Amino acid sequence: MSAGASARQVPRLLFYGRLVAAQLEMSTLTALQYRLGFWTEGLLGLLWSVIGIAPLFVAVDHLGAVEGWGRWKLVVLTGCFTILSGLFTALLQPALRESMTHILKGTLDYVLLRPADGLVLCLTCAFHPWHLVEVLGGLVLVIAGLWLGEVEVTATGLLAGLATGAAGLMALYAFGVLVLCASFRALQLQALTHVMEALMDFGRWPAQVFPPALRLLFTFVIPLLVMTSYPAEALLGRLSWGTVAELAAVSATLLVLARLAWVRSVRGYTSASS
Amino acid sequence: MSERAGQLGRVIAAVWRISLAEAIAYRVSMLMWVLTTTFPLVSLALWSGLAAGGPIGDYARPDFVAYFVAAFLLRQFTASWVVWELSGQIRDGGLNTLLMRPMSPMLYHAIQNLAALPIRCALALPIGVVVLVLAGGLVWPSPGSLALLGLSLALAWLLNLAVHVAIGCLAFWVTESTALFEVWLGLYLVLSGASVPTSLYPAGLAEVVRALPFHASLGFPVELAIGRATGAAATHGLLLQALWVAAFGSLAAVLWRRGVRAYEGVGT
Predict the structure, then answer these.
(1) B47: chain A residues, CB-CB within 8 Å
(2) What is the rounded average pLDDT of the residues A32-58?
(3) What is the pLDDT of residue A2?
(4) Does residue B12 register a pLDDT over 70?
(5) Sign of dihedral through CA atoms A4, A5, A8, A14?
(6) Would you call B151 helix, strand, or coil by DSSP?
């Protein structure tokens, strides 16, 4: 049974790999039609991610350091934030908006009818490649911050950083799917992606600054800090493996919840098209 | 003349009623928009946490509470979303219908904006009150400064509207004008005082930031509301607001006029 199942699963995985690649290629071609968008959204998005550090620097200016985070450590944190917000605006946000429009207009039928998993199709149906510039910029910031702050990054620190970063990305996707499921019930929820975007901005701040209640909220319910603050701490070698495991568990739970919510929502979906 | 004015009045009233009904119909969506603007409240938590050890600049902990709650409430009064509607209508031809109506599309958008204000405030006021109860009271401004605050709010609303229309009108020539607006929004969040009071910026930089339109559209009315801008500073701020309204208002008017002339009415 298991041998047969795994033999069937390999071509299935390949199929999904090809499917995602094809979807991304298509949306890249569409996106390249808007060249002005590249300059304004990509490069200025990067600029904005860097300008957004201003409130933090105002705080450092007055206080010397914010809860043990000096200037260069904050640059590392900003880098982590920029990478994540770049991934969000490049991959997740456009797909969510497009899928919500599908739900609103009733054209989700055509997506669901295709011979592949509906959720995979929904999450790859749009892509804004120019925002990947922000991801590159974020990487530069992280490296520059570590370099200028003279932080020695150990192999385990790097590994922990990557693991928490991956957990953060998974949590972000899970949260996005939950938002998508909510839009089956209440229409006109495109605004929710703006709420997400506005909320993500608080990922710029170190976890220690938040009051306990908000810290719990932003770790377990809206896992902002898992995405930005914790990976930066891991890179700086200040995070224990226990915490890393906890964060991974949070992300995994959210993913399972999101998948269940999706299955339920699609079952309850009554087409709205004519 | 008076007949025409009466007719315009009836048209305006009709649009108001429709917009209000729309706002009520999509109240969940409206609540979401209100939620996006709760952002100053999280900033409040952050800054009052940082100020626990002592005042930051000239802001002690209660000052931060007053500042950010005021920022949250005043943002509801001055909010606008014309840029999304306008650029969409220009792109898909929805503007055609508006142009056929017996009133300027600009007036239509302005009334639509105003009509949503009561709902927005009804949704936002309880949140503001709860935060005030949890975090400590707010000193109410005197009646004289309330009048000034009203004036300043009206100017801030006009300024926001003018910026939205000006950027939205760019859609007559470029397809992705909303991308430019995102840039504006990014600068707004940092420079308007929504995430940090602008007076806390380092000396030299603060003066520059406070002269920009971002501060005029949020930071200044907030400082007026919490009694930080009085006397000459208040007059100065109001003048600066009026100046920015005039600048962006005329820019919007020019762009709109030229745009309509260039408009080809694609779509329907």
Answers:
(1) 59
(2) 72
(3) 47
(4) yes
(5) negative
(6) helix
Q: Is B108 left (phi over 0), alpha (psi -120 to 50) or beta?
A: alpha
A201/B189 touch (CB, cutoff 8 Å), yes or no:
yes
Q: Give the global pTM.
A: 0.74
Domain limits of chain B?
A: 2-262
B206 contact A CB<8A = no
Do residues B141 and B54 lie in contact, with contact meaning Cβ atoms separated by under 8 Å?
no
Torsion angle of the four alpha carbons B98, B171, B186, A76, in this order, in degrees rounded to the nearest 10: 140
Q: Which H or E run contains A49?
A: helix A44-51
Position B196: which residue type? V
Q: List the single residue in A187, A191, A214 with the smallest CB-CB distance to B45.
A: A214
SS3 A32: coil
Q: Considering CB atoms only, which of A36, A191, A209 is closest to B33?
A: A191
Neighbouring CB atoms inside 10 A of B111's CB total: 20
The model's pLDDT over B63-112, given as tens digits with 9 standing for 90+, comes to 888 888 888 888 888 888 788 888 888 878 888 888 887 778 888 888 88
B32: nearest Cα among A250, A222, A58, A179 = A179
Q: What residues in B contact A31, CB-CB < 8 Å? A: none
Give me the mean pLDDT over the B201-222 stretch.
Answer: 90
Q: d(Cα A47, Cα A86) in Å, to the nearest integer?
A: 12
d(CA B52, CA A192) in angstroms, rounded, equals 33
Residue of B nearest to A195 (CA): B36
Q: Minimal Cα distance from A185: which residue of B?
A: B28
Q: Which residue of B has its CA nearest to A131?
A: B179
ipTM: 0.71
Chain B: give the shortest CA distance to residue A82, in Å: 14
Residues 6 or more apart whose CB falls under 8 angstroms from that of B185 comprise none
Number of neighbours of residue B128 by Cβ within 10 angstroms: 18
Residues of A with CB under 8 A from a CB of B: 34, 36-37, 40-41, 44-45, 48, 51-52, 54-55, 58-59, 61-63, 66, 186-189, 191-192, 194-195, 198-199, 201-202, 205, 209-211, 214
Mean pLDDT of the region A150-175: 86
Secondary structure letter of residue A186 according to DSSP:
S
Which two three-digit tokens encode residue B184? 């504006």
Residue A150 has pLDDT above 90, yes or no: no
> Which residues fall within 8 angstroms of residue B109, CB to CB, at 6 or more apart?
B82, B85, B86, B161, B165
Please identify which residue in the block is written with the tokens 């309509």. Answer: B260
